[in-house]
Design brief:
258 residues; alpha/beta; 8 helices; 7 strands; globular
Length: 258
């Protein structure tokens, strides 16, 4: 399927690796020009070179989107994107009794306010051009919160609520906002988490992986390319009637209907 985004420009945050990189690959594969954003110059440079070598078009901006200065750098490089993929790593886990105000502010800056700021600064241009696609990568924890991830639960739920209102306001302009909620995808971050859990429990990482995989009805972890393909479709010309949605990609792990 031709997604109808050839020649469109896309900002992909966290685009140097993992799920963000998969989104960038999928968008570039259908002809969009990608502006990769992350903090590591080396990882960004490698990602851009690989996308360009595969026939895509990618530039990179080393910036921390949780900071105002970082977001300004991104928007200076690409002030009028047609597509925005918001994505930032989650805050650390912990007992909510130990969270301080600074912990909450850091979580909100990274996982709520940074995305809102980028939306605020790009959406009017999308409205004027009568095309815009905004995808926020949040987490399956938005639908099934876990106590130890209170910082992430709160910040991502705040972004979800904000997006739900804005999506209804701008839909008439062919501008959509949706959230993708990843479950367990086989990325470097997931493998690192398994190693940390294994070390804490005195077990092997492979045992942790096998146990977690058994809880998933699909009996496997997701492949990042599957996530990228879902993101690319939401960003396509064919997805203009999908907006304000929280789309769960978890292999059936969440047991509810809604």
């Amino acid at each position: 399927m031709d997604l109808g985004i050839s020649g469109r420009t896309a900002i992909v945050c966290g685009g140097s690796k993992g799920l963000g990189r998969a989104c960038a690959d999928a968008l570039a594969g259908d002809g969009a020009k990608i502006f990769l954003v992350a903090r590591s110059e080396d990882a960004l440079r490698n990602a851009a070179e690989e996308i360009n070598a595969a026939g895509g078009a990618a530039e990179w901006i080393a910036a921390d989107v949780a900071s105002e200065a970082g977001r300004r750098d991104v928007l200076s490089a690409c002030p009028d994107p047609d597509i925005l993929v918001n994505n930032a790593g989650g805050p650390p886990p912990g007992d909510f009794r130990n969270f301080k105000r600074d912990d909450w502010i850091a979580a909100l800056d990274a996982n709520m306010l940074s995305g809102i700021d980028l939306i605020q600064n790009t959406i009017d241009g999308m409205i004027e051009r009568r095309f815009g696609r905004i995808v926020n990568i949040t987490s399956h924890m938005v639908k099934a919160p876990v106590g130890l991830l209170g910082l992430s639960n709160g910040a991502r739920a705040g972004l979800t609520g904000f997006v739900g209102g804005v999506a209804r306001d701008v839909a008439k302009h062919n501008v959509t906002l949706n959230n993708l909620l990843p479950g367990q995808f086989d990325t470097g971050r997931l493998r690192s988490n398994h190693e940390k859990i294994a070390a804490a429990r005195g077990r092997e990482a492979e045992d942790i992986r096998a146990a977690q995989m058994k809880r998933i009805p699909a009996q496997r972890f997701g492949d990042a390319s599957e996530f990228g393909a879902a993101c690319a479709f939401l960003c396509s010309a064919h997805a203009g009637y999908i907006t304000g949605q929280n789309i769960l990609l978890d292999g059936g792990e969440f047991p509810g209907l809604l």
